[in-house]
Records
---
Amino acid sequence: MAAESSRLDSCVMATTDLVQKVRAAALAEGFDDCAAAPIAELPAGGRLREWLAQEMHGTMRWLERDPARRADPRRVVASAKTVLVVSRSYFTDLPVAESPRDGRISRYAWGAEYHDVMGAAIKRLYARIEELMPGASGRYYVDTGPVMEKAWAEVSGLGWIGKHTNVIQVGTGSWFFLGAIVLDCELPVPKPAPDHCGSCVACIDACPTGAIVAPYVLDARRCISYLTIEHRGAIDREFRADIGNRVFGCDDCQEVCPWNRFAQLGDSARPFMPAPGRQAAPLLELFALSVDEFRERFRRSPVKRAKYEGFRRNVAIALGNSADPSAVGALARALDDVSAIVRGHSAWALGRLGGSNARTALREALVTESDPWVRDEIAYAETMIDGSSEPVVAS
Ligand code: B12
Ligand code: SF4
Ligand code: SF4
């Protein structure tokens, strides 16, 4: 890094012209927009602490780690002055899987792993900034660091945080990723982006699980995106029917947002075009994937974050919601799965599909099943078939 005087010179020279050059570099690296926010204590920091205190983050314990650092990047880069926020569209202009027999994957995960695409582009942009602003230094992040990317995007004027809690831009919508570069240089103060949600509540009404518990507040524990991607272990029965055919993530609140009507396919979203079998695929095909086939199909895809067991759990739930009697055989075989999580959710799915074959499979499984939680799921599934609302605890 250059000497301190050089850094000060370059910071003083952070003029509108320089900002235009940084912006041009960002666009050249594949980003659609870029805006700078001056560092100050984020109001969102207090809200983050409140959100954590209410346990709305569920099992995402990593969010608890040092919230003060998340709210103030100066705790990471002591001399930080600016957060440069970049965005890149993943809107690929294709319809979502409507058939309940197909597994629906969230738009953001149809194509390349965005951490790879955004990470490589932000690294190149950072190198360009070092050339444009000799002496500048900082750090860059895509999701991985303790930076509240949405809050900084709002302060920078790049967009506003909608009631569904994603950042929206006029003319573009919300189908974009964010990245952030924390810099030790000042850039001209941005114009704030006004909130254009107005009296609209379409996202709140559309959420299948009531996860947007108040405007701008998401209870992750109820969010299908959290449940199917981040959450390990059993998914509460309360949410299983509402998960429908979503096997990885959820887009409902964004699908209904009127601002997303303006989204258009651009070059920046090309890497996120769906690879075969990644936008949607028959549930039975997904359920039949071996661990190696799962890894192969979702190599360099965000879907691998769910892990094999979590993905099969999600597919089992979706099969239960599919009303497809031909799924009974595969679910019955899964009552022998090595994973208790897969066995338990398969039992629930059999109960939801119902019928004599499902009942026989559940009864047979109860003879050999020793896991108390799976036994309880089997007993509950039997009550679903009987039409009784009360689960019977297996002895
Ligand atoms: C944890 C996380 C999640 C969690 C929690 C989501 C959430 N809303 O926080 C889960 C797993 C649910 C999730 C889901 C998704 N995520 Co996510 N996620 C993150 C991550 C890693 C951290 C976000 C965070 O700090 N959350 C904590 C809460 C407390 O913060 P917050 O949402 O910013 O909430 C504040 C505001 O809403 C605010 N607020 C603002 N204005 C107002 C006004 C009032 C009156 C009030 C009361 C509050 C308020 O108060 C809250 C507290 O600070 C970010 C990356 C990053 N480092 O920022 C990506 C990120 C937010 N996710 C992203 C995406 C794409 C998604 C999904 C669309 C993926 C999918 N299709 O399944 C869904 C969207 C679900 C939804 N409706 O938000 C993108 C969003 C891009 C965008 N355009 O905004 C990000 C930025 C990743 C990236 N690098 O691009 N995600
Ligand atoms: S992603 Fe789905 S479950 Fe989560 S808030 Fe949006 S609509 Fe609700
Ligand atoms: S659906 Fe309506 S309320 Fe929700 S984010 Fe979009 S404009 Fe705002």
---
Amino acid sequence: MRHFNVDRAPEGVDRDDWESHIWQMQHRVRGAEDLARYIDPTADELSAIEKLAETFRFVITPYYASLMERDNPDCPLRRQVVPVSEELWDGAGLADPLDEVAHSPVKNVIRVYPDRIAFCVNNECALYCRFCLRKRMVGEPEWTMQKRELGEALDWIARTPEIRDVLLTGGDPLVYTDDRLDWLIGRLREIPHVEIVRLGTRLPVTLPYRVTDALCEMLKRHHPIWVNTHFNHPKEITPASIAACEKLVNAGIPVGNQTVLLKGINDDPATMKQLNEALVAMRVRPYYCYQAQLLDGTAHFRVRIEDGIELFRELRGRTSGFAIPQYVLDTPHGKVPITHQTSLGRDGDDYVVEAWDGEIWREPNP
Ligand code: SF4
């Protein structure tokens, strides 16, 4: 039996309140005083919280805060959500490294490929990850989508017949109420050329109590629905996050996971293997592992691409193939798989490949 991290309500908090996603959203950690209920913040963390207040929002769900290690500033969960002063020093990063604004035919719709779009329906998240690709917009009021603007985006999708796959993202679409999400997906379902609706959400990880039976019942009415979530570390796997993913899967929704490769958090083969094997065991399919972008204030999270390639090379052959996500670099031209070269090319009548254990195989290929 695996041992999982378990969320713990602080003393005095009723368990029913704790397991209510509404209570969790209303009682989020917003400052040093709240944070001290869960961890002993370092002087550097306290100073960074203050200095970065105007730059990128700091909010954590009580659930996620309760998973962090009180005395360990290197805790892999704490590092994802608690600011540190290194965020202030990175001068190399960009605000919009994927040039998403230039790829938006209408507000918050990003089109990089002909047949699919990322539709940033919401600029709110349950918490804010310090490495977030969309730092420029999440938590920022000017990126909020009013109902009229959602309507304009829906009209654009309706008059663009090539679009067959719509990813609802943000921010986080599951921060919406069930009714608002039902309305939005219902409108998409009225568009005949939209075949698939996907939801990109970190709430199964950061606020798993949001995945209620009522939500799953509503989503089931709009099939085919796919969900991609975002676990980065095995310590994010808890009985509550497993239950959330199982509810989605049991509602017939395929659930995939997108990880970001993060220095000091998951950039070693043992952690990556443990994470993805645990995901497979809970019927969540590892999908992508993203190279962290050259983004403002995130240099301390970035791993060298060569080291990332080597990490995934070490996993190949040492766990189930479907427990290895595809390592990709996202670019303004779309995702590019980055991988150790195992196809060595033609040699006479043979095609030469390198196997996982380093052996060279010559496959007759006249
Ligand atoms: S949940 Fe996703 S969109 Fe929200 S801050 Fe984290 S990475 Fe960014």
